[in-house]
Amino acid sequence: MRMSTVRYPKSxxxxxxxxxxxxxxxxxxxxxxxxxxxxYAIIGGMAVQTWVSTIDPDAIRFTKDVDMLMRREDLPRAxxxxxxxxxxxxxxxxxxxxxxxxxxxxxxxxHLIWAGEKVRSQDLCPAPPVEHRRTVPEGYQVIELIDLxxxxxxxxxxxxxxxxxxxxxxxxxxxxxLAQLAPELAARLEPLLVExxx
Length: 198
Hints:
The chain is an alpha+beta fold and 198 residues long. The protein contains seven helices and seven strands.
């Protein structure tokens, strides 16, 4: 019996390729930093994806870039380690990032957040320490769940709220989480829980 070949539309094929390229960037970055002994933690959409997949892999939402927590003082060593792995450091609109030589778009770069510092002066909380992380089976370091929740509640843009509802929907975040938050952050989480009937 002859097996038929599934042909995906070009747009879908491009999506698959973008997802794989982003995961490759994450793993190349992680391997280079781990080899150099530089602490880091994956944050943002990739961290949400990682945590959600521990409960329901079908519920993950894909993202086109990598966000990484790092200590500012480790940047010179990171530039050396990631330079050897094919990444170049750039600052675009005051955002530090490592751009992949294979795909030099800032939109698809590894974006940096400095550990222990506020992203914006008006933020309620600074970014967490880089030590608040764990190694996942895929071999990279991801920020602890409660710290990820705090970061999403601090930023609280529309896509941050969507990421929070993703984590609520699979049971990673619930009413017990409220007690682990500062009152200002708990006040932002409460309506999302109510919206999802939790």
